[in-house]
């Protein structure tokens, strides 16, 4: 009988290659992890101060510095946070996957507001080895009488721990960059990686190019040196209360974050604390023309730390046409995407965002109808795409869907059907190309009939969708089924010769023996003739074209 309980042991020889290869797909993630650790260290110190376990000296300017030294092949991340003692290094750094952040939160669970601490898994620090051959930690703890400690490791399983050199509270991480990370030894890629991940982190981040500083010193120019500017905005707009944000602030934020100098049409400020924490701003961009790439950009943040762009698993696909930021500290973002896809919590977030967007649109329709109409040409592809992709969204917005008529007015389907009941027999006539179909439009206008314009590429799938959802709505292109009110009663016998001649002609011309032609006479019309192709035949043709079959 074998009967034994025990704990599995993880050997770092095994886990290092796994971390390096699999944990993070992007090399540049080390920037995010180390700078967020630095910010965490500052947040923790501030919490200790609030809880009365430490007093932050006056005039403390909390900051993180990133120093690049191309000559020495090093990158340093320096903070003035709480630092570590030798024991803490042993516990938090040497024990891989023992997260100090978790430990800290557990220890101060009720007193500290845990939302603001970024770390979770206790693996972030080791992302340093994706770019560095050797990593050094030089740190001095906030604890009274602490001695500085230095830890060094070359990515193997051995480390050294000795007395350090720091004289001020905080931590310096030094990366001795190896071959795998050499792209980061230049100012531009390193700086733009910091900007990518850290633009909204909560403490000032400064970039220092040490080699440049040296050259400056050598040439000894006594120019007025400008006050160095942090790379980040520590108070992102989305964290402010919507009532405290001005229109100009929203616009400026949009310009800066999305580099889009066309003003957004309007925006939605998401601000939710319960049952989950979610903040963000979604902008409806102005689309210049139909051919412009409609793809927007939604940046996902976790506690002010940029995580990814356009995560389909969290944000409903149709919302990716918008531009915006979403900050959700509760999202388990280091786990795989397939997990996110199936996670109930993630679905709730996604539903919440969808609902907010629908609410905003219906609100605009009701309270600012004029603006709504003004925006419609820009937003309708988005609203239609959303309706196609998400039934819940469709049911919320279906009553505010409007259509531009050939008279330039905007009208809902319901009103259109009601207004044109007599002449149209409940059909909704539409135009796909105002120029090509101009003679039909003319004909309609002469007869005081109306049609709506559906000329966007989303419109074909969209009307099929509406037909499948709303039983009493049937669409017909303006050049397909003619309304009865345009037809003149005529004798079939009289039209027979014309029918036969035309049928033969078209059968030959189109090489189709089964083609059927029907001739009808119209009233009120000053055209010699016009061709009409039934709605079904045309849709069939379009379908087969789409799927690459030969024409009918
Ligand atoms: P996590 O951040 O998820 O806890 P990390 O691997 O990023 O995991 O870091 C492990 C632990 O090491 C942290 O929780 C923290 O206790 C400690 N640590 C890392 N960097 C610093 C730093 N700059 N200052 C103080 N402590 C740090
Ligand atoms: Mg971390």
TrEMBL record:
Report the superkingdom from the record: Bacteria
Q: Name one GO molecular function term.
A: ATP hydrolysis activity
Q: Where does ATP bind?
A: 33, 37, 79, 84, 99-100, 171, 337
Q: Which UniProt keywords apply?
A: ATP-binding, Chaperone, Nucleotide-binding
Q: Which SUPFAM superfamilies match?
A: ATPase domain of HSP90 chaperone/DNA topoisomerase II/histidine kinase, HSP90 C-terminal domain, Ribosomal protein S5 domain 2-like
Task: Give the transmembrane ranges.
Answer: none
UniProt-annotated stretches for the region Disordered? 214-238
Q: Which family does it belong to?
A: Belongs to the heat shock protein 90 family.
- The identity of this protein, by name, is Molecular chaperone HtpG
Q: Which organism is it from?
A: Natranaerovirga pectinivora
Traced from the root, the source organism's taxonomic lineage reads: Bacteria, Bacillati, Bacillota, Clostridia, Lachnospirales
């Amino acid at each position: 009988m074998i009967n034994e309980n025990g704990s599995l042991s993880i050997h770092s020889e095994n886990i290092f290659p796994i971390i390096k290869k699999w944990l993070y797909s992007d090399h540049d993630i080390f920037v995010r992890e180390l700078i967020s650790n630095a910010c965490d260290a500052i947040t923790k110190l501030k919490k200790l101060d609030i809880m009365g376990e430490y007093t932050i000296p006056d005039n403390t300017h909390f900051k993180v510095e990133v120093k690049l030294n191309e000559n020495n092949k090093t990158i340093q991340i320096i903070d003035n946070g709480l630092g570590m003692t030798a024991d803490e290094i042993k516990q938090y750094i040497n024990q891989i996957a023992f997260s100090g952040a978790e430990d800290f939160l557990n220890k101060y669970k009720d007193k500290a507001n845990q939302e603001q601490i970024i770390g979770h898994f206790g693996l972030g620090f080791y992302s340093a080895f994706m770019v560095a051959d050797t990593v050094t930690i030089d740190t001095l703890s906030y604890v009274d009488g602490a001695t500085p400690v230095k830890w060094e490791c070359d990515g193997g399983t051995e480390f050294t721990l000795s007395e350090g050199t720091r004289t001020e509270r905080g931590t310096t991480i030094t990366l001795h960059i190896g071959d795998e990370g050499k792209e980061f030894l230049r100012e531009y890629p390193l700086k733009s990686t910091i900007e990518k991940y850290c633009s909204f982190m909560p403490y000032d981040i400064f970039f220092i190019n040490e080699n440049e500083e040296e050259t400056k010193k050598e040439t000894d120019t006594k120019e007025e040196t400008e006050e160095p500017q942090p790379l980040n905005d520590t108070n992102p707009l989305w964290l402010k209360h919507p009532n405290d944000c001005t229109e100009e602030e929203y616009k400026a934020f949009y310009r800066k974050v999305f580099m889009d100098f066309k003003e957004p049409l309007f925006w939605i400020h998401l601000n939710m604390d319960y049952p989950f924490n979610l903040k963000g701003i979604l902008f409806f961009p102005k689309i210049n023309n139909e051919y412009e790439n409609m793809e927007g950009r939604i940046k996902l943040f976790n506690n002010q730390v940029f995580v990814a762009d356009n995560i389909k698993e969290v944000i409903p696909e149709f919302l990716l046409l918008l531009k915006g930021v979403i900050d959700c500290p509760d999202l388990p973002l280091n786990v795989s995407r397939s997990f996110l896809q199936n996670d109930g919590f993630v679905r709730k977030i996604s539903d919440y965002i969808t609902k907010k967007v629908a609410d905003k649109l219906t609100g605009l329709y009701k309270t600012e109808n004029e603006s709504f109409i003004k925006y419609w040409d820009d937003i309708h592809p988005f609203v239609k795409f959303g309706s196609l992709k998400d039934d819940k969204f469709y049911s919320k917005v279906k009553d505010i869907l409007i259509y531009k008529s050939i008279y330039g007015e905007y009208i809902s389907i319901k009103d259109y059907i009601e207004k044109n009941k007599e002449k149209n027999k409940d059909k909704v006539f539409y135009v796909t190309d105002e120029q090509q179909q101009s003679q039909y439009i003319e004909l309609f206008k002469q007869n005081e009939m109306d049609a709506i314009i559906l000329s966007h590429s989303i419109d074909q799938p969209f009307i099929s969708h509406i037909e499948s959802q709303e039983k009493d709505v049937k669409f017909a292109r303006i050049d397909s089924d003619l309304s009865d009110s345009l037809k003149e009663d005529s004798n079939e016998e009289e039209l027979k010769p014309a029918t036969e001649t035309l049928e033969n002609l078209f059968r030959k011309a189109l090489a189709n023996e089964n083609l059927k032609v029907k001739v009808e006479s119209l009233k009120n019309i000053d055209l010699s003739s016009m061709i009409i192709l039934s709605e079904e035949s045309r849709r069939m043709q379009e379908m087969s074209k789409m799927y690459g079959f030969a024409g009918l």
